[in-house]
Amino acid sequence: MKKYIEQLHFITHDLESLSHVEQARIVCEAGGKWIQYRCLSKDDDALLADINEIASICDDWGATLIVTDHIHLQGKADIQGFHIEDMNADFLRIRAEVGEACTIGGSSNTLEGLLRLAHEGVDYAGFGPFAHTDTKPNNYPHLGVQGYEQAMVQLKTQQVELPVLAVGGVTINDVDALMQTGIFGVAVSSAINRAEDVEAAYLDFYQKLR
User: Fold this and answer.
1) Which among 200, 202, 143 is positioned nearest to 167, based on CA atoms?
2) Chain-centre distance of CA 115, in angstroms?
3) Residues of the chain with pLDDT > 70: what percent?
4) What pLDDT shows up at residue 160?
5) For a pLDDT cut of 90, what percent of the chain falls above it?
6) Which domains does the chain have, with CATH numbers?
7) Dihedral of CA 86/92/98/103: which sign?
8) What is d(CA 3, CA 161) in angstroms, rounded to the nearest whole number?
9) Against a cut of 0.70, is the pTM above it?
10) DSSP state of 78
11) Using CA atoms, how far apart are residues 193 and 11, in angstroms rounded to an integer?
């Protein structure tokens, strides 16, 4: 079942200045169509409180709500899908658990990982890190533009159709070069939610991709 995937994924993050709900509201009011709620610091009750409020905002603005991990919350809130960060996750099992109608995204930092995700039927893949990021610290090598170019050539050669999004340290100045590699879109957190004007920062990314 082919799903709708937006080119610009906004990922919420734990911030002192803005709650996850406030981040989602600002982005949706700016025209955002894809909110990925990423919170790994709260218990289920607090998660559901956030998710239910964000789901209501997304419904009002016609945005898709994706939750990072926490697939055990399916059916307890109006969630359209899940993004699984564990690169070793069994996506065949996850698909069987959540059903065909649920959107599933996966993460990878290698071509081999992308091929596995495609084989196991994810609906899109976050591929990174593109550059240094403080949102999700890790020791993986930065892919850079060349890493995306090489991966997209290989996917095309092997006739693999998978929406690939660059993630990890992507700034507005990187978008043009990244999109020229053949990727589907970008996933952004800090470059938007840490900007002085969050709405303007989102719109800058949105317009770059149109």
Assistant:
1) 143
2) 18
3) 100
4) 97
5) 94
6) 8-208 (3.20.20.70)
7) positive
8) 13
9) yes
10) -
11) 9
